[in-house]
Design a protein that fits this description.
There is one protein chain. It is built from five helices and no strands. Helix content is 65%, strand content 0%. The longest helix has 31 residues, at 70-100. It is mainly α. It is elongated and about 70 Å long. The protein has helices spanning 3-22, 27-48, 70-100, 119-125, 127-135.
Length: 137
């Protein structure tokens, strides 16, 4: 098994986990999914540089081979941007939770969390009367 296969598998697994978590209905898994996707991008960028062991990152007249410094610089920049993006998304998710009282992406509470009137009361009195009765309690 080659190292290229392991790195490409790691990028694939991180990407799949990130996409799966971004498609969840709660905010915390979405934040984790975005973090996994940024990790996958960072590993992909780092692996695209064809890192050479024990070689200098800067070319000189006496150097026969060197490591490309551009992917390393891109990964460092991406790490800083991902950290800022994650902090912003966490603050937005916390603000949404405090405003709506739920951590659902759409801002609506789970149907199991909200009290539902009995079906016979809704059928006889109508949905508006049952909800006004619940509000008066």
């Amino acid at each position: 098994m080659s190292i290229e296969f392991l790195v490409s598998t790691a990028v694939g697994v991180l990407s799949a986990a990130g996409i799966y978590l971004v498609l969840r209905a709660r905010t915390f898994p979405v934040v984790l999914g975005l973090a996994f996707m940024s990790y996958a991008i960072n590993v992909f960028l780092f692996a695209s540089g064809r890192l050479v062991i024990n070689q200098p990152p800067i070319w000189g007249k006496d150097v026969a081979a060197y490591t490309d410094p551009l992917p390393q610089a891109l990964v460092l920049t991406a790490i800083v941007i991902a950290f800022g993006m994650t902090a912003l998304v966490v603050v937005l998710a916390l603000r949404t939770y405090l405003e709506t009282g739920t951590d659902q992406i759409d801002g609506l509470a789970d149907r199991s969390d909200t009290p539902q009137p009995p079906p016979e009361e809704t059928a006889v009195l109508g949905p508006d009367a049952a909800s006004s009765r619940e509000a008066g309690r």
